[in-house]
Amino acid sequence: MSNMTEASLILNNVSKIYSMGKNDVIALDNINLHIKSGELITLLGPSGAGKTTLLNLMGGIDTPTSGEIKVFNELISELSPDQLADYRKKKVGFVFQFFNLLPALTALENVEIAIESFGKKEEIRKVAVKYLEAVGLGERLDHLPSELSGGQQQRVTIARALAKEEYAEGNLLILMDEPTGNIDEETGDQILELVKKIAADYTVTFIVVTHNPLITQKLQSREIHIRNGKIITDSNNQANS
Q: Between vectors from CA 38 to CA 232 and to CA 33, what angle results, nearest 5°?
């Protein structure tokens, strides 16, 4: 396991401003945040608060207008588009509300494709099987997404994100955007229990974006509340650190 006191993610005075014609829209306003390696975080806020924008910046999908973002000691806010693509491939796993699985590929192939550049085909297959078994889908390897329930599809996306852990040497950030938003409450609770288990068993930093305060309670996670592009509260009292 990595040193849990090490910072996996640091944001210093991060702002994101979008130009909308003659008007500027401030999506994020001077965000300061310090997240330790291995933490389980819930990023909570209403629609339009800036949650997804912040997630996109952490994941290297977008870049800040100003400020610095450091992830695993790498200053990603200054990386080129090609370098950001490499960062996303090696150090970030994404879990979305609508699964984003490739419909023509089996569960096993959907996981393999995320890690195919990390090793030989035989090794990649073993790793993909390992992480699908870790999420309880060892008997569903050859099923297409259309043959899986919503909860099972979400487990595939979690396995796909988590499989990078095999190669990340403790430097894996998993970003989840409303991961229970497209499944029923009971299945969603099972997914949240799985996230808690993974957070305990693996060296992964989890950030879960949601508008639902019950998710923080169910995950027993650190809660960061964002509104109007600003961090309002942080259960670790680090909003202004």
A: 25
